[in-house]
Amino acid sequence: MEEGPPPPENLARDHTGVPPKRLRKFVYENGREYGNDSYYMPCDQAENDRLAIHHRIYTHALKGKLTTTPVTSDTRRILDLGTGPGHWAVAMARQYPHTEIVGIDMAVWDIETTEESVGCTGVNWEIDDLDVWGVEDDFDDLKRRLERYDMAHDYANREPLSASKAAKLKGHTSASDSSQPHTPSDSAYESYALEPEAQPGWHFSEPFDLIYMRGMKGVFAYWEGVYDEIYKNLNPGGWLEVVDFDMSLPNIEQGVDNFPFPTLAKLYLGVMQAAFKSGRPVGTFYMHPTYLDDAGFTNIKQTYVNVPIGQWPEDEEQRTIGKMHLVCIMEMLESMLLRYLTQWGDASKDHWTMEEVQSMIEVGKGEIMDWASGTDRFGNIREGWCASYKWIIGRKPLDARDRREM
Ligand SMILES: C[S@@+](CC[C@H](N)C(=O)[O-])C[C@H]1O[C@@H](n2cnc3c(N)ncnc32)[C@H](O)[C@@H]1O
């Protein structure tokens, strides 16, 4: 990890009274700029440009719509968690000018350019670290879960992880299990520990009618806590929407050895292994309905859309999107892999060099180009390649207690 030169002064404007970007701490690593020393994706101009393209893809997938939740005249306050450069937030502000929109992120992004692109400044930007829980600290449990991870069976890690850390979220540890009575003669008895521990949580001044998060895989380790906080910070009748995607991997169900692209397979597995080693597993498991159900949400509904990757579709509009999608995925390789593999490594070694990651990415890109353009290494012509985009929504019941009573 290096501290690099200060970024150019015009990279970002600050809207919240925190020091301007040039005075804030950023982490410069392997030629990229990161918002902190743990989240795996960068927050520099290249990533900003990639997220701008990705926003168009998400919107295209919904045929121009920005949300699958009902936005009505009663929808007053909207929160975009992990807003990044704020493309969704500014688009919502333009489409629903009667709403008050808050975009929150731990990194300072080039918000000014996003606002200029739609001619709209109706979003309140806040800078804050939402991860009040930290990493998964039971590394043995993580190791067991990684061993159970089966790329051929669940390549995108979609199955929910066990709710192993409910105790942490409730603020106890097994050593001070309050379900067991203690007496002053117990070594575990601690008269000064009788006050309840402070609960980790978010503190917004007012609740919201819609809380949205997109592209947040790998951000948190304690998703149960995230959904509880979202629930608490919604008005009764308010909606949650979570959006993300994963790529289909051709023939993967027949085993990694039959996957036509060995380098991509190694990189894909490397991402999973590095994420587990980092203490924040990655995958779309966090969008499983059980998380919403457990937190108390009702009216849970999922929407899936397949979006083409590459120029294979015959339909001209789909082909344009497929081309954009391909560019976005090529760029995403470095954004996702560089920190994961240099900082945590895969199962084979703890740290890759930047050069090793970059040269694997080049080979991986070649494989993607082969795939996207027609044949695999076995000479098979394949069906079109897609990524699966998913929206999951849930509603806080109208008769739920509001936050002040919880
Ligand atoms: C893949 S980007 C998605 C950005 C945006 N939602 C979009 O769809 O364009 C993930 C975002 O999560 C933010 N993030 C990561 N860790 C965070 C944390 N602990 N607190 C707040 N934001 C965080 C990153 O800075 C980044 O902007």
UniProtKB/TrEMBL annotation:
Cross-referenced InterPro entries: SAM-dependent_MTases_sf
Superkingdom of the organism of origin: Eukaryota
Species of the source: Didymosphaeria variabile
Alphabetical list of Pfam families matching this protein: Methyltransf_23 (PF13489)
Biased composition (Polar residues): 173-188
PANTHER family per record: METHYLTRANSFERASE, METHYLTRANSFERASE DOMAIN-CONTAINING PROTEIN-RELATED
Protein name: S-adenosyl-L-methionine-dependent methyltransferase
A GO molecular function held by the record: methyltransferase activity
Segments of this protein annotated with the region Disordered: 166-188
